[in-house]
Design goal:
Blueprint (H helix, E strand, L loop, with lengths): L14 H10 L34 E3 L6 E3 L1 E4 L5 E3 L6 E3 L1 H13 L4 E3 L9 H9 L8 E6 L9 H15 L4 E9 L4 H9 L3 H11 L2 E8 L3 H8 L8 E5 L4 H4 L7 H10 L4 E4 L12 H10 L5 H10 L4 E6 L4 H11 L7 H14 L22 H13 L12 H15 L25 H17 L5
Parallel strand pairs: 3-6, 3-12, 6-7, 7-8, 8-9, 9-10, 10-11, 11-12
Antiparallel strand pairs: 1-2, 4-5
Helix pairs in contact: 2-3, 2-12, 3-4, 11-12, 14-15, 14-16
């Protein structure tokens, strides 16, 4: 079964009525007049409160090793950054990383996933510094062969990346090692960067030596590559990393494949799944107010994000669910969800499917804030532009026309928030349409087109000549 376009059922609210809501401001209740700016993933309406237990973490058993792996895994793609003191760019806030990893460790999180390319190449070193302060047998390290953007896919270059990961992570073995983003650039590139250069044979041999304890791959893109690797009789994969959330379960778009199919194929082969993007890059933690309210009516004390994490963790063949936690609030909220963990019941599963279908009707850009599109050669902050736009869509601050009831409020909120979130020299107006970013986007977003659309929208709002 291949990924197919889903034919939407008749919703309780059709597309026209939903889009009308953006113009009337029905979704904008409680929106601050100071603008839409808010850090990605933080949702004041959707956070939870209450005690944070230290001894209730849910664990799953690795069938190969028998080791207990925390159901909540720490994704190290979105470490907090700050400007360097010399003004030459950004650096990771190492003190904050140390504090969050210490807290996660204390509360039972033992799986840490990074990559040579995360946070513009800074993640492995920062993660290694923080983890090395703890006994090596208290945590599992996962990292990747991230050769997607190499100028050459030659084995020597790939081996150099592999060896550098050991140094940065301060370890002499990897608990989990992955071929990164298999299929993201299509079948031909997959062959070039994984098969023809001998890298697959190399990592299989490294598993035999023990430097790799568990070998897997992460999948984005061409389903042919996924099926090919699973159907290789000579390879026993220890785990596979897939994108799974309650939207992508049956309604995957772009380069993604329905997670129902992916997990089903893994389950048939008894291969544990590691879950990435359970929040769709944070988008499912800050739903439009209308949808968030439906979740709050059923479980008023739970965060919006917790619903997505519970969906991912409710599948028995899931080993761990990764969350890219940038701030301590993220860590605390997620620990509440997984310690202890409560699987979804049938009523909740039905509700999330309804919300998934409604969510797809909102004009949100499918940005996961992975930053694979960065750095932009022209200095544009692509993820932050798209995140700001999406947040304003959720809050009803993207009006359909000047006749919209909340036009003046929405106009001010969008423009003020835009300038606060994105420095002027890094805004969409500076996009040249070179399209160098698009091929690296796991979600297959046409970034140049989105930049042009947002720039036209901003200029129309500035000139107060917006006609929808």
């Amino acid at each position: 079964m291949k990924n197919k376009n889903h034919e939407f059922r008749q919703h309780e609210m059709d597309r026209r009525s939903i889009l009308k809501m953006f113009g009337t401001g029905a979704l904008a209740a409680g929106t601050s007049m100071l603008g839409c700016r808010q850090e990605p993933g933080i949702s004041p309406e959707g956070t939870a409160t209450g005690p944070i237990p230290t001894d209730k973490m849910e664990y799953r058993i690795n069938p190969k090793t028998g080791e207990k792996v925390s159901l909540l895994g720490y994704g190290c793609m979105r470490w907090p950054t700050r400007p360097k003191s010399d003004g030459t760019g950004d650096e990771i806030d190492q003190e904050a990383v140390n504090d969050m990893i210490d807290f996660a460790m204390e509360h039972g999180v033992n799986y840490y996933d990074t990559s040579p390319v995360y946070v513009q190449g800074l993640s492995e070193e920062a993660t290694g510094i923080a983890l090395a302060r703890h006994p090596r047998d208290k945590y599992f390290i996962a990292t990747k062969m991230s050769n997607m953007r190499m100028k050459t896919f030659e084995l020597s270059a790939c081996r150099a990346m592999y060896e550098e990961s050991f140094k940065r992570l301060q370890t002499d073995y990897f608990d989990y090692y992955l071929l990164h983003a298999v299929g993201m650039m299509g079948w031909d590139k997959f062959k070039e960067r994984t098969l023809d250069n001998g890298i697959l044979d190399f990592v299989l041999n490294e598993r035999e030596t023990g430097r790799i304890r568990n070998l897997g791959f992460s999948y984005h893109g061409d389903i042919k590559a996924f099926d090919y690797l699973l159907n290789r009789d000579d390879i026993k994969w220890d785990f596979v990393q897939i994108q799974l959330n309650y939207v992508d379960w049956k309604h995957a778009t772009g380069r993604n494949t329905n997670a129902e199919y992916l997990l089903g194929e893994l389950s048939k082969r008894n291969i544990p799944a590691v879950i990435m993007e359970p929040l769709l890059g944070g988008r499912l933690s800050s739903l439009p107010t209308f949808l968030m309210t439906r979740l709050k009516q059923l479980r008023p004390e739970d965060s919006t994000a917790s619903w997505a994490f519970r969906f991912a963790g409710s599948h028995a063949d899931v080993l761990t669910v990764l969350s890219g936690m940038t701030y301590m609030e993220h860590v605390q909220d997620n620990v509440r969800t997984f310690a202890p963990f409560e699987p979804l019941n049938d009523q909740e599963k039905i509700l999330l499917e309804e919300i998934a279908q409604l969510y797809l009707e909102y004009p949100i850009v499918a940005c996961n804030d992975c930053k694979y599109c960065m750095p932009c050669p022209y200095g544009i902050d692509i993820p932050r532009i798209l995140l700001h736009y999406n947040k304003c869509v959720n809050e009803g601050n993207v009006p359909k026309s000047q006749e919209a009831e909340n036009y003046r409020q929405a106009r001010r909120a969008f423009l003020v928030g835009y300038d606060q979130s994105v420095p002027r020299l890094r805004q969409a107006s500076h996009c040249t349409g070179c399209n160098k970013c698009t091929e690296h986007c796991p979600q297959k977003v046409d970034i140049a087109t989105e930049m042009a659309k947002i720039d036209r929208f901003v200029e129309a709002l500035k000139q107060n000549k917006f006609e929808g």
